[in-house]
User: Fold this.
Amino acid sequence: MQFTSGRGEVWLNCQVFPVTPNTVVYTPMGTVHRFQMFTDFDNVAMVTPLERQKRPIHITVEEDGPPVPTVPGFVVPGEQKRGPFAQRGARCPLSELSLAELAAGEAVDGATIPANEHWAVVTGSVRLGVDGLEVELVPGDVALLRAGTRRRLAAERGARLALARE
Assistant:
């Protein structure tokens, strides 16, 4: 999860970390976590499939017993986030989670992308060109692009996009 605005705290396995704009929090299965936000906030999040008992959502210790940790979670403070995660561990499915702001007329031209990319439109709209096909993406739309694809994103009036890179 990446917080795009707001201030607060996250408790991750008994440690407290500040949450500021651009902070990323990774909570793998079995990680005890809690968020306390002190201001209004926005975030973008990606949820991956559950393993083991495949419970439908979060569990509580009182009802389900203590969690069985898989791998450690982590927090990347907003002021330190500068691209790919430095030490994400072997099981974290993402190498990067970021927010892109495109001004009116601005474009993201890409050579062939080296890793799978997931683009979600938060505000505005963009034209996505992929291998000769062009579509318009609006808020709520998600584009999943495979590694080896050549893509171009362009905003006519400005847009905010979340990018998750595997």
